[in-house]
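Section: Multi-chain targets

For targets with more than one molecule, the full set of components is provided together so that the structure can be written out for the assembly as a whole rather than chain by chain. Components appear in the order listed by the source. The example entry contains two components.
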Amino acid sequence: MSTNRNFKYLLGALLLAPMTTMAADYAPVTDARLKNPEPGNWLMYRGNYAGWGYSPLKQVTSSNAKDLAVAWSFTTGLQEGHQSPPIVNNGYMFVTTPGSQVIALNAKTGEEIWRFKKELPKELLQLHPTNRGVALYGDKVYYTTLDTFLVALDAKTGKKVWESKIAEWKNGYYTTVAPLAVKGKIIVGISGGEMGIKGFVKAFDAQSGNEAWAFSTVASPGEPGGDTWPADTSKNGGGGTWVTGTYDPETNLTFWGTGNPGPWPIDGRTGDNLYTTSVVAIDVDSGKLKGHHQYHWRDAWDWDEVSAPLLIDTEIGGKKVKTAVHAGRNGYLWVLERTKDKMNFLTAHKYVEQDVFTAIDPKTGRPTYDPAKIPGKGPTTFCPSLWGGKDWIPEAYNPDTGLFYIPATNNLCAELPAAEEDLSYTPGGLFIGYPIPDVLGSLRVGKNASRNIGEVQAWNLKTGKQVWNHAYKSINWGPLLTTGGNLVFGGGTTDRMFRAFNATTGAVLWEHPTPSGVTGIPTSYEVDGVQYVAVQSGWGVDAQRMQGGLDAATNTKTNVPQGGTVMVFKLKK
Amino acid sequence: MDDKHRGCQATSQASVENRRRVFRLVAGIAAGMTTRIALADDEAQILVGDRLVLHTTEGAPVALRPADVRPNKVVLAFPFDPATRKIRNESRLSKILLVRGDEAKMDEETKKRAAGGVLAFSSVCTHAGCDVNAWMAKTSKLLCYCHSSQFDPYDSGKVADGPAPRPLPWLAIKLEGEELVVAGPLSAPPGAPA
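Its structure, encoded as tokens over all components, is:
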């Protein structure tokens, strides 16, 4: 080899070095790793299959969190709601954005490795321009798009490997959910509950992209539960599944929360409307339903119960029990027992102002409603509001403190008028049943709203008691992260802050203003021995919608600027 | 225009083709373009002379009349070819909203675009592409259900509130007999920015 050729070789190697080093280091994501994720990585939506939103890392603690500072930040260049967790594997970070984009970043430096943009149809409508993240499996990255595709990308290059159509966007179906990767399958849910969809959970083969199974969250005539829908109302029955499910490897069951039935007025759909506003337990291999619990029957309040329950083995009343815990949009904290073939009601605690349920059956958990609080006949007020005590934003569980953390919105209510009389279903059209100006203007302030609205609550599941509550004047749309350092992280307020709380006491230890408001899911990871805390700042979608409603109800104007930024923090040296 | 569209139009009359060419040219000028752009499957097709039909119509179209547009209610429509009776509903971008206006509130320019007291706009919100399908009676504004963008029908569809970055394109209509008829191209390309 001549000197000249040596020089060229060396130059080429140097130019390629940063990328190839990064690429060579990508560690395939196996079932074993997903079952027991190493503390330094954040491999899935909530960090583990149980949905805890917990990082065992403890370099950043309640003693030193005050020293957190920006390690790097990265603007996505996009507007609207940035909700996805920065998911990290071996130095690669993956975030998704509005506009159905995926960005791979160097988790240590913020350098962009690749960006994938799905070409969306020009005529697509975007009711919820957001995305809630990727799933990692093998050497691929999976995400869902607003035009309702599941897309598989090469993790190292961002090149598309395959895409599979989940459903038809022209019929009101769309996807924002982060997929769940389990045992060779990529499992997704669906959005469109306000557009007359029939909800489902679907699994696709991780390698081929072929559909493996589909479970309908709305029971059809002749199926178990089909008699809870009169006539053909199940055809457009709603039951979206737009938040990632959890998974219990011991029973091979995946747990998904389901959305409200549609349309909203209840007159046409007498019956319980299974399996809407429920949790469903589905066998991962077969797609068969193995258990369910309906949090509230025949919903009339748009209380999607889409958040999957957190799977927590704890003690209730001194007895060891495997639970599934969910802070409901209906304002109650539900504690269920999960078994291999059944879900049993254990207890429920009201965690925000709620005036619809008059009783909850102690054996079955079935609520009784105040008839005056069921909208449809004429102006009706009820609490909580359409967005509930907690919307999609995830709770967190810390096994060290034993506490369950809820990002709540309290003291807000709603008023709906008489239902529309001439509602008819149009494919791809809105299928709500109330006049739109009244829906968008439905928010009412509750009697204690001047005291506070947003809250971060900590609950002891063993005692069923609230341990601490940090109250905000602002609404709270901040997903939570908790860590082995006795910390809880979350944003969600209109002042654009991202905060760290003492996980035991609720004391605010640190806060940092971000460019927009934080509605993204925070995560934590480690690279080269340094712990990082990451979150996307990027206000929009329902946080903005709710604040608009609150502004109208209180004759105020709140400006939270839009624009997405990945913010990453570490301790100052 | 792709082959599929050419196929669809094989039975069209020459006058229809002429009208289409005129529309494309006028739409191109309206959009500030100097060259003619071929229509893809997902682009708006609204031609001068088209009648309007309820957007849910399947089968034979019945042309909308001013009386079909009741006060305080938005009517969503698609254009259709009066010769072939073909409804131009391949793309949502062709969808039109009709609203009954108060002639006392219309300036001269607005009156020229109206027919029988009815005003027409693209129904596709310029923010995120949803249907602008609601009327706010108290403030006389058009409302998009997705993100609460509001548009002023008496001020050329200008943004009155919300995140929409540009006005809702208006569409001049006229009466032929009792039927509402498209009298010109959309004032701007419909839909959200790419």
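Chain A touches chain B at residues 121-127, 129, 424, 426, 428-430, 435-437, 439-440, 544-545, 548, 562 (CB under 8 Å).
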